[in-house]
Hints:
The chain is an alpha/beta fold and 237 residues long. It has 8 helices and 9 strands. The strands form 2 sheets. It has a 6-stranded mixed sheet with strand order 5-6-7-3-8-9, sandwiched between helices. Strands 2-1-4 form a 3-stranded antiparallel sheet, with helices on one face. The protein starts with a strand and ends in a 7-residue tail after the last helix. Adenosine-5'-triphosphate binds next to strand 2 and helix 1.
Amino acid sequence: xxxxxxxxxxxxxxxxxxxxxxxxxxxxxxxxxxxxxxxxxxxxxxxxxxxxxxxxxxxxxxxxxxxxxxxxxxxxxxxxxxxxxxxxxxxxxxxxxxxxxxxxxxxxxxxxxxxxxxxxxxxxxxxxxxxxxxxxxxxxxxxxxxxxxxxxxxxxxxxxxxxxxxxxxxxxxxxxxxxxxxxxxxxxxxxxxxxxxxxxxxxxxxxxxxxxxxxxxxxxxxxxxxxxxxxxxxxxx
Length: 237
Ligand SMILES: Nc1ncnc2c1ncn2[C@@H]1O[C@H](COP(=O)(O)OP(=O)(O)OP(=O)(O)O)[C@@H](O)[C@H]1O
C-alpha cells in the first residue's frame, strides 16, 4: 500500500522552545486516522506543518511523494479557522473566495455538505454560533478534492446530534483513496470510524496503532486505551 503522508526525523522549535521532537510517521492511502493528545501536545502544530502552513522545521514531510511547499498545499485541505475574514462577510462570499483560491474546490460538493449539515449561506460570519462556524469550516474543508484532509478538533462547540452528522458527512464524502486526519483531546464518537490512532505525548509520537488492534486488546476500545496512556498504565510499555 502507498504511503500518502511520510514524515521523517521531524523536529520543530518555536521561540527557542521544543514543540515536536523526532517525529516519524507514515500514513497509508485511504486511512482515517485519529490524532490524539492532551492540550498543547502539538496536534495543531503537526497539522500546520503537514499542510505547509508552518515553517522552520527540520526533517522531511512528503505528501503523495512531494515535499515542495506549493505542491503540498495543492494536495492538503486543512480546516483553517475563518479568523482572517471580516466578521461582516456573508457566507456566500467566503464560498466564492474558496472557489477562486482553490481550483479543486467544488461548489456542488459544498452545497451537498452544507445542505446535509444545515449551514445557512445567507448569514454573515459574525451571526454564526461557534458550532455553526465549525460546521462551515468542515463543509469548506471537505469540499476540496485533495489527497489529504486535516480536521483540527472539529467538534469544539458542537452538540451531540451535529457531531453525529459531521461523522456521517466524513464517511459520506471521503474519497476511498483520501487520507483523513482528525485531531481531538478525547476520542468520543469518532472512534467508530477510525482505521488508526496516533497519539502525541511529550512532544513525540507515542504510538501509532490500528484501531482493530486496540479494540482487540481493550474491551472498552480506543477511549480506554488512550486514557491508559495518559494515566501511565499502558499495557504495552
Ligand atoms: N506561535 C507559537 N509560539 C510559541 N509557542 C507556540 C506557538 N504555537 C503553539 N505553541 C506551543 O506549542 C505547543 C503545541 O501547541 P499546539 O497548539 O500544536 O497543541 P495542540 O495539541 O493542538 O493543543 P490543543 O489541543 O490545546 O489545541 C504548546 O506548548 C504551545 O504553547
